[in-house]
Q: What sequence folds into this?
């Protein structure tokens, strides 16, 4: 309802064009590592129906596009995981923090896409300027298995990657998630992985950002620069200890 109310108020106030911040997860998530999704992919409702955040983002995006038309243009930008410096609220760097603090108990079998927050901001500005009304634009700089992701973080930070890796089986991951939940209730300290996050980590969030590059002229930076800047920023702000 918030998206509807906000966009209706914008249109009533004479605003002619709006860019909404959606998420790549409304279309770019799969059980298949070879399924690299673009803007034409259908939302995987069999997957995201069980995840309220992504389900609500999809419904909000649909409500926004319902309002697109003559006199009021709506464009959606769909970034993947936001990394880079400046996450003062810990909104999207929590897994990196857990890794640097050596609190990550295992590496899930899935894969992710991420983008530098600075590049996502540029993508939103470009979408306002050049985006086609009624269209979404996926923003992602790199697709990586979680195993590769955490080992690259390890090389950058000097912190060893977890030795334990979950199997690919979603069923086994769900069983493991229930064990994690039981362990959380009995241990005197908190594990940084909840069952839903463990399940999500078994999926592949890979995307193709060709459309944003081609139509918007969007050019993200080297993803390794983003990882290095993320680690350096967290240490400089004292979120994690500077030494591994």
A:
């Amino acid at each position: 309802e918030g998206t509807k109310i906000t966009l209706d108020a914008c249109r009533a106030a004479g605003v002619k064009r709006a860019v909404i911040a959606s998420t790549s997860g409304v279309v770019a998530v799969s059980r298949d590592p070879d399924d690299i999704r673009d803007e034409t992919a259908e939302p995987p409702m069999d997957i995201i129906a069980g995840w309220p955040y992504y389900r609500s983002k999809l419904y909000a995006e649909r409500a926004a596009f319902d309002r697109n038309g003559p006199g009021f243009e709506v464009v959606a930008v769909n970034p993947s995981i936001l990394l880079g410096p400046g996450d003062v609220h810990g909104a999207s760097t929590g897994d990196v923090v857990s890794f640097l603090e050596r609190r990550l108990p295992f590496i899930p079998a899935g894969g992710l896409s991420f983008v530098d927050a600075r590049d996502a901001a540029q993508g939103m500005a470009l979408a306002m300027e050049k985006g086609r009304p009624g269209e979404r634009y996926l923003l992602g700089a790199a697709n990586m298995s979680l195993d590769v992701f955490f080992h690259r973080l390890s090389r950058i930070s000097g912190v060893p990657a977890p030795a334990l890796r979950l199997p690919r089986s979603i069923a086994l991951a769900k069983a493991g998630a229930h064990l994690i939940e039981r362990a959380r209730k009995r241990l005197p300290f908190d594990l940084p992985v909840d069952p839903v996050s463990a399940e999500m980590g078994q999926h592949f969030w890979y995307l193709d950002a060709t459309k944003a590059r081609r139509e918007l002229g969007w050019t993200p930076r080297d993803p390794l620069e983003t990882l290095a800047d993320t680690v350096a920023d967290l240490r400089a702000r004292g979120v994690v200890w500077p030494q591994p």
